[in-house]
Amino acid sequence: MSLKINNDEDSILKDLSSLSKLGPILPSKKGSNSVGKLMQEALKIKHSTTKRNSLHNYTVTATSSKLNSSGRTNIFACVPNWQSSPFKSSKEIVENFGRENLSKGYSNCLFCTVTSAGPNSFGLELRVDLHKPSIEEWYVSKEEEYLVAKWSISNLMEKLDLLKKTAIITALTIDIGGKKAFHYRYVDLLEKPNFRNFLELIDNGSITIDHCISIKAGKNSAREQGPLFKVRTNAREEFYNNIKRIDLMDL
């Protein structure tokens, strides 16, 4: 397939095709997000913690999960509506539900996945009312249960509305001399998702949130990198509209 550069889709496919044809690439750093960081380096995308990574007007992200796996990819980060929540900040949440981890330099931290499938090891679970609608986080134990936080539906709808065009690149994991390399092989080009599907996928556990809250030892302020809403790879087609899946080696 020859690519004529006449729109954003052609432009991003040209760049991703060139990336794929490099074959397996060894990352310079290890870690759970090494596949994404390596992609950013190779495509010369400047990493940002305040806005989504973009290439040719597409939000781009990478995963090493297989297309039919239960691995997860980021949708967006969104804090609860603190005004309507019993807990009024990320700091209050980590102080009540987090744990000390001095070996990592934290006086308190909460790194966990929360789903609607039931309480996690911290006692936290998501609850969705499809009719109101509402998305809430609850603490649940044998002795008690109570509301922790709730999200603004209008805020979540605005976040989803920003996801106009998304490209999710899937990398195959290749062993090279005992080291893990990534071959960026496939891309899903996605259009804006449906909010009703978003709610239903949270309700059935296919969309989850990750808490990433920490207080460093000797510090008083909390660092919040989420909550991150994530969708399981095998539920991607139910979430997004009009998926175009491409093998980059065919271009």
Structure, explained:
There is one protein chain. This protein is of the alpha+beta class and 251 residues long. Helix content is 21%, strand content 37%. Strands 3, 4, 5, 11, 12 and 13 form a 6-stranded antiparallel sheet that branches. A hairpin with a 4-residue loop joins strand 7 and strand 8. The longest helix has 13 residues, at 8-20. The protein is globular, with a radius of gyration of 19 Å.
User: Based on helices, strands and strand pairing, what is the structural class?
Assistant: alpha+beta
User: Judging from the principal axes of the Cα atoms, what is the shape?
Assistant: globular
Give a count of the beta strands, DSSP E runs of length 2 or more: 14
Helix content: 10-25%
Low-pLDDT parts are 1-5
End-to-end separation: 5 Å
Radius of gyration: 19 Å
Strand residue percentage:
35-45%
Number of alpha- plus pi-helical segments: 6
Mean pLDDT: 90
What is the N-to-C order of secondary-structure elements (H for helix, E for strand)? Answer: HHEEEHEEEEEHEEHEEEHE
Main sheet attributes: strand count, strand direction, barrel closure: 6 strands, antiparallel
